[in-house]
Amino acid sequence: MCAKSFKSTNNFAESEISDGMTLTIERMTEAHLPEVMPIEREVFAPGWSEEAFRNDLRNPAALYLILRVDGKIVAYAGMWLVVDEAHITNVAVKPEYRGRNFAKRLIHRLLSIARERGCVKAILEVRVSNTPAQKLYEKFGFRPVAIRPKYYDNTEDALIMWLEGLDTPEYEATLRAIEQEFCPAK
What is the CATH number of the domain that holds 131? Predict the structure, then answer.
């Protein structure tokens, strides 16, 4: 079951009932950091500092979303919007909540917002060892274009992935098809 129960007009907050859980996606604020930081440390050890998040949350070019399950933050994602490009900076899901399409929902929402804001392309970096994330990004149309040596903790390479045509009707159809995977029509 996937029934929308609320969608705000600010293009950020939305809630729905899915498989008996209330899922809410909303814009991240500094008030969310006490719940976000343990996820950051668990998923990306050591990850970004709280000050790095605070700086980004104050940056008008940055946008971060949280995903709550029954009121508890279990995932977040962020991006920078620079001219006509969206740069996805982080996507994190608590390990015990993986496999429920939460990362897919957040990426979908970020890319939808990027389209609304006039972006035509998107970029991200992902660990070369993180093949599940790479497969998810490929589903959204990202393609590998280069390697950034020793990007993570000066030890692991990053795969740079690129998406073009974010503004096209074809990509809008791609987003609609992906949305149907986690919220099928009745």
Answer: 3.40.630.30
